[in-house]
Specification:
This protein is of the alpha+beta class. 30% of the residues lie in helices and 15% in strands. It is globular and about 115 Å long.
Length: 761
């Protein structure tokens, strides 16, 4: 019995040692683990050596993968790699260049007058009644394998119609055994554009496009009537509605001229329309998919385009576990596209042109695992278990650069691991605005007051040191702006020609912010010498509306107060929540504010319209939050808006920017940077928030990844030695007691009480 007890104790210690040693492996994402894989690895045994990219998502699964509804950044890694709009953007070139995806080329529109006669390209905008886009498709493009196309031998659809029995074991698209495909046609784009007007889709872009596409607004009203008729005998709240077949309801603004030609008729002249054709809102939708997902019972099982897309792009969704894991796999029907051979300066040296001409995509699968907390995500990235922390985030790399600048230890760690942290200035901006309707900082009622108020705004623009703001609050991860157009967009001017001469002097070819003495001089000419009213002597108090909810006190707000105080101006901060802030902006009662803008497309119009008079926010709900109105600027905007890209358009933009620099309705603020974080084995990685189908161009070196994961996560053996010592410490006294008993047994059995209590039987 004593020997049995000792053996049991030894087994227990060994088991504890095994568990503790297993716990010494670094933690990693949840995943499928085989018997031979490390207990905490996200990979099945040997999977780290396969051509798979691992990344994460942190909030929730993407809500809308239906391209007509998707309008969130976290959905774009899926939608833009599964679907193909007519156009896209060159992966490497800056300024951004529009290129064809499924189209044969980027089409120039044909212009028509009131009689339907064709006008030449030099026609005056007032003569142009319609711009007609005839877009030709590449033949031979195939959809991904999908059950919506599966057919029986007699040609009938295999999964239409499906009764309850046929659907009972179907909860995901892979549950359908049979798949099929067919060629992409112009009719699929027509169907997709019609869907934007469907009341069942509720596309966020419908109202915008309906303003421009001929007949689209009336078509939307017609569809609402048809849908109401189909619903009239259905129970309220039912999700199983009769299919609304959009092939039966069309309109003249969008039609298929033949199998490979889409015609889109746009009202008047709208050169920016081409950029809408690069968004997934106009990705093709096969009517078979719309009908397939309309069957009874599908919606209750999340079988819909929102969860299971049907596209022609390089990848397709093959696994979807809500709020857990999603997998994109190479589309076997994708035709392949060559990697670009041109880029911007520096791309060659960065190795971004090494794969020139090779067919994409390079990666076989992309696996998205959920990570609800940022600290474990960062830790697992540093262990090598994630190749990119989050594909859809442009701030991860910036945050890591900031951390490296604050910590030499982190900087050394990132360098040791070879982490790539490239950054780029994005098509977005942060600005400080003045309300043009305000009597103090706005336009002013009389010519004299207009001059005085303009000098006040200029003085404040000089005093507000944006270089310091960027250094302190954005850790130098932004570019100070001299105008409203960011780099990478036609109209942005680099170097001396682009400097704001109202706010800056030029010294040795570099901008130098004008002195505070200059700001004080302008302030005095505005009627406020030393920050006091020239007649009453009352201090000048300006009001800043903040949506921070910080109660008027925060490091940023305190810094802003000091900037104004440098020239004797008092800043009163009115802090509120964002809803209240938006309400005040809508009424036009905020005197000063800070806001930002992210471009939908890379055209100067998408920034300059923020100061276009007819777009004022107060009373009209436009995006001109400063309510700025200048007839000269508005006339130039209308001219610029109708011009094609080129020197003439650039010149008009330059004139507009000069007006804004003098009028100063904004302090132009800064253009934030975005940055990616990529492991050293990730190739062709270039940060961008405009190009969304980036996964198509990236590549992985699985051999290097496996090597580095093994190097960074070695087995930790010291606990085994400690546990062996513990085992010896436990068993050695017991062994001595056992030996003593054996010796005593030779002379007779001693009393039981001579043995320790724990060894008595």
């Amino acid at each position: 019995m004593l020997l049995s007890r000792l053996n049991g104790m030894a087994v227990m210690v060994v088991l504890c040692a095994t568990v503790l040693l297993a716990g010494c492996e670094p933690s990693a994402p949840a995943g499928r683990v085989s018997e031979s894989s490390p207990i905490n690895s996200p990979y099945a045994a040997g999977a780290e050596q396969k051509n798979i990219l691992y990344t994460a998502f942190t909030q929730r699964s993407p809500k809308f993968l239906d391209p007509a509804r998707s309008y969130s950044t976290d959905e774009t890694p899926y939608t833009y790699n599964i679907y193909e709009p007519l156009y896209g953007y060159h992966y490497l070139k800056r300024p951004y260049e529009l290129i064809p995806r499924t189209a044969t080329h980027v089409t120039e529109p044909m212009f028509l007058d009131w009689q339907g006669n064709t006008l030449d390209a030099e026609a005056r905008p007032s003569e142009i009644v319609e711009s007609v886009y005839d877009i030709t498709l590449r033949p031979g493009i195939l959809y991904q394998p999908h059950p919506v196309f599966a057919r029986l031998d007699d040609g009938r659809f295999r999964y239409w119609p499906l009764d309850a029995e046929g659907l009972k074991d179907k909860f995901a698209i892979p549950d359908f055994k049979y798949t099929g495909t067919r060629e992409l046609t112009a009719h699929d784009y027509v169907y997709a554009l019609r869907r934007l007007a469907s009341p069942r889709v509720a596309s966020p872009i419908y109202s915008t496009l309906a303003q421009h596409v001929v007949g689209m607004e009336a078509y939307g009203k017609r569809l609402r009537e048809v849908d109401a008729e189909l619903r009239k005998d259905m129970p309220a709240g039912t999700r199983d509605l009769p299919w609304l077949d959009l092939r039966s309801f069309g309109f003249s603004g969008i039609e298929a001229l033949d199998e490979y030609t889409v015609r889109i008729r746009v009202k008047g002249l709208y050169p920016q329309f081409k950029y809408w054709l690069a968004m997934t809102f106009v990705a093709p939708i096969p009517w078979e998919a719309d009908r397939f997902y309309s069957q009874p019972g599908m919606a209750q099982r999340n079988l819909s385009l929102n969860h299971w897309p049907v596209g022609t792009g390089p990848y397709m969704l093959t696994e979807s576990l809500q709020n857990r894991r999603h997998v994109l796999s190479r589309n076997p029907n994708f035709r392949g596209e060559p990697y670009p051979c041109e880029g911007e300066p520096g791309d060659q040296a960065a190795g971004l042109l090494a794969d020139c001409g090779k067919m994409t995509p390079f990666i076989d699968r992309i696996i998205f695992n959920i990570e609800k907390e940022s600290i474990p995500l960062q830790g697992k990235f540093m262990q090598g278990y994630y190749d990119i922390p989050q594909v859809d985030r442009g701030d991860t790399g910036v945050a890591m650069l900031v951390a490296a600048s604050d910590s030499t230890e982190k900087a050394a760690l990132y360098a040791k691991h070879g982490i790539q942290l490239p950054t780029t200035v994005e098509a977005q901006m942060q600005y400080f605005g003045f309300n043009w309707r305000d009597p103090v900082v706005g336009q002013g009622d009389t010519p004299e007051q207009q001059v005085r108020n303009r000098k006040l705004r200029q003085a404040l623009s000089i005093a507000f040191n944006w270089e310091e703001f960027v250094a302190i609050f954005q850790n130098d991860q932004a570019q100070v702006a001299y105008g409203p157009i960011p780099p990478g967009i036609l109209g942005y001017v680099s170097g001396e020609a682009g400097f704001n001469r109202v706010v800056y002097d030029v010294k040795d070819g570099k901008p130098q912010r004008k002195s505070l003495d200059e700001a004080r001089r302008l302030l005095a000419e505005a009627g406020y010498p030393n920050g006091r009213h020239e007649k009453t002597g009352a201090p000048l108090v300006l009001y800043f509306d903040s949506a921070s909810g910080a109660g008027g006190s925060s490091p940023t707000l305190d810094w802003m107060r000091r900037q104004f105080a440098n020239i004797g101006v008092q800043l009163d901060v009115r802090s509120t929540d964002y809803n209240r802030f938006q309400e005040k902006m809508a009424r036009g009662v905020a005197q000063m504010y800070m806001w930002g803008w992210v471009a939908d497309y890379p055209d100067a119009e998408n920034f300059l319209f923020l100061l276009y008079g007819p777009n004022v926010k107060a009373g009209k709900g436009g995006e001109n939050a400063s309510n700025y109105v200048n007839p000269a600027y508005d006339a130039l905007f209308e001219r610029m808006r109708d011009l094609p890209d080129g020197d003439e358009k650039a010149q008009v933009i330059a004139e507009m920017i000069k007006i804004l620099q003098v009028d100063a309705p904004w302090m132009f603020g800064a253009f934030p940077k975005s940055g990616g974080a990529f492991q050293q084995w990730v190739g062709n990685a270039k940060p961008t928030q405009m190009v969304r189908n980036t996964l198509q161009y990236m590549k992985i070196d699985p051999t290097l990844r496996a090597q580095k994961i093994a190097e960074w996560n070695p087995p930790i053996w010291w606990p085994l030695g400690a546990l062996m010592a513990l085992l010896a410490a436990i068993l050695w006294p017991a062994w001595r007691v056992l030996r003593r008993q054996e010796r005593l047994n030779a002379f007779g059995e001693p009393p039981q009480e001579q043995f320790p209590q724990e060894l008595r039987q």
